[in-house]
Design goal:
The protein is an alpha/beta fold and 412 residues long. It folds into two domains: 46 residues; 335 residues, Metal-dependent hydrolases (TIM Barrel). It has 15 helices and eight strands. Strands 1-2-3-4-5-6-7-8 form an eight-stranded parallel sheet. 38% of the residues are buried. The structure holds zinc ion (ZN). The site of zinc ion has 3 residues, from loops.
């Protein structure tokens, strides 16, 4: 009896070892140094493979499902969220090359957000060789010649700053600027002369919102950041891998306002200025909670949103996202936060236009904004047209004409 049990035990242990082997990568045949041992002298199986760092774990999916490799948008599109200043840094050749990328991907026009108010002509001149393909928003240089460490020296804390900014907005509109951009620093880093953070809804800024309304310059605002960036950076945090790579992206702790506080202050600005059009960048900062964004859209008729760098969020909730995008088809704009490598663009087309399952949202490995894959929402043509160009043409001044010119010049 004892002998029988012993033999059975040996067989069972061999079976376990075989299972381990079968689930290991097929490229590692048994007996290669990385293969797990069948058993050791004591008879217990001990894993010897190193546990990889979370950033090194980039598995290739074995899932065999339909893959629709779209390489262009179905309708000529307008990307309303691009950074041709920050990312290209005056490189005209890179801009020329990107226009070719736009042609291949059926992107008619890109909206750069990188002109600096007051010296917007520099960026407009950079884009001018392709004047049918680009328009630009401007952003305010709050610091000016001031020293980073000394908020008292910043331009925004000098007398007359607001009046000067409003005059610059008028001049910029005349020069061809199509809107005003606010980066997330507004609310998270911008400080008054006492080194206290400015609230987004500080009445100090009211003349700027009013002037944008009067001039019909839409305001695109990036407020807060992904929810997880406001949580403790622990292994419970769904963006831990990313935050470990970029610790400065965490806004957890007392040095920063809470995410809700920022979003609510932003909403009060939108509410107080019904004649000014606001575009909430990156799904208005609410990509993880679309029901909440829905309430904002219902509450504020002067709010639009765009999807730049958030297909990773939308595509992991494809059922909810599809309903949301269809319901709000008149209020959603297409954006990417580019210019990006072409592969990244293909993921936007696949997300919006197909029912593909479980594909990456970025060309980077591992996926840079959350370690997951996404699913397409296969939007109807009527909705795609609105998101790709109709809404942007209605909302952003001059864009209608530029878009038509772009399409004419491309078809010639
Ligand atoms: Zn951006």
């Amino acid at each position: 009896m004892a002998i029988l049990l012993l033999i059975t035990g040996v067989i069972a242990r061999h079976a376990n070892a075989q299972e381990l082997r079968d689930t290991s990568d097929n490229s590692n045949p048994p007996n290669t140094p990385n293969a797990p041992p069948a058993n050791n002298a004591t008879g217990s199986v001990k894993p010897t493979l190193p546990i990889p760092s979370i950033s090194a774990f980039t598995p290739t999916t074995k899932l065999k499902v339909a893959r629709t490799l779209l390489t262009r948008s179905k309708f000529p599109s307008i990307d309303v969220h691009c950074h041709f200043g920050r990312r290209l840094r005056g490189d005209a050749e890179a801009l020329n090359a990107f226009v070719k990328t736009m042609d291949r991907h059926n992107i008619a026009v890109c909206v750069s957000l990188d002109a600096v108010l007051g010296s917007e002509s520099d960026h407009l001149r950079f884009l001018a060789p392709h004047r049918d393909r680009f328009v630009s928003f401007a952003h305010i240089d709050f610091r000016g010649a001031g020293q980073q460490a000394n908020p008292e020296s910043w331009a925004c804390n000098q007398a007359g700053f607001i009046r000067k900014t409003c005059l610059q907005l008028k001049a910029a509109k005349t020069a061809g600027i199509c809107g005003l951009k606010f980066f997330k620093q507004f609310g998270l880093h911008l400080k008054d002369s006492n080194s206290n953070l400015y609230a987004i809804d500080d009445p100090k800024w009211d003349p700027i919102w009013e002037t944008c309304g009067q001039l019909d310059l839409p305001v695109i605002m990036h407020t807060a950041d992904p929810s997880a960036f406001f949580d403790p950076v622990t292994t419970q945090n769904e963006r831990y891998e990313e935050l470990a790579r970029h610790p400065d992206w965490s806004f957890h702790g007392d040095a920063f306002p809470g995410r809700d506080e920022l979003l609510e202050a932003r909403n009060r600005v939108i509410e107080r200025h019904p004649d000014t059009k606001f575009i909430g960048a990156h799904l208005g900062g609410g990509a993880e909670e679309l029901a909440r964004v829905q309430r904002w859209l219902e509450q504020y008729p002067n709010l639009w949103i765009e999807i730049a760098s958030r297909i990773g969020e939308l595509g992991r909730q494809p059922f909810t996202a599809r309903k949301f995008l269809i319901k709000n088809q008149d209020r959603v704009l297409f954006g990417t936060d580019g210019p990006w490598p072409e592969l990244r663009l293909t993921y936007y087309w696949r997300f919006l236009e197909t029912h593909d399952e479980y594909f990456p949202y970025s060309e980077k490995r591992p996926q840079p904004q959350g370690l997951w894959h996404i699913y397409g929402v296969n939007l109807p043509d009527k909705v795609l047209e609105k998101i790709y160009f109709r809404n942007a043409c209605e909302l952003i001044p001059r864009l209608d004409t530029v878009y038509q010119n772009a399409n004419n010049s491309r078809s010639n």
